[in-house]
Amino acid sequence: MAQGDIKINDTVIPLHILGDPAYPLSAKIVKGFVGTNLNPADDSFNVYLSSARMCVEIAFSRLKSRWRMLQKRMDLETKASPRSITACCILHNICEDLKVPLPATNQLEEANAMLYPQPAAEHYDRVDERHAYQMRAAIRDFLAETEPLRKSFHR
Predict the structure, then answer these.
(1) Contact call for residues 108 and 71 (beta carbons, < 8 A)
(2) Which whole number is the average pLDDT over 90-100?
(3) What total number of domains does the chain contain?
(4) What is the pLDDT of residue 117?
(5) Which DSSP symbol is given to 38?
(6) Who's near 100: CB < 8 A, 6+ residues apart?
(7) Domain span at residue 51?
(8) 1 within some domain
(9) Which segments of the chain are extended strands (E)?
(10) Across 41-68, average pLDDT
(11) What letter does residue 68 receive in the DSSP assignment?
């Protein structure tokens, strides 16, 4: 197991990204179950996943609205990007602690979404795909055993 990995019911769960339906399921990107007749555990997993994604999306939205350089392609050397992003995060946290209001929003985010669309899905091998399904099932089962089942209100 690599650093940061956890084990749930004999399944190794590496660090991963919470994805939306546009992304493929993989060991690096976990997304919800699809379909209209989901069992309660699958539906609950989707609600927990959506809640976690929403929290992250709100945090990134606030960060990007405060530091507009994060709303577009960065004209920096590759080596400087992590330091610049880290500095934005640290300063953002200071502003949040001091309750400094966010600047007024503009249309730049929508323009950037058109200029920089989401990446095309990569081809993943079958071993990765099988592991991704096992990972998602292990996380779903763990949540169903340890947390209250939640129901989606979108149906």
Answers:
(1) yes
(2) 94
(3) 1
(4) 57
(5) -
(6) none
(7) 6-102+121-146
(8) no
(9) 6-8, 11-13, 17-18, 29-30
(10) 91
(11) G
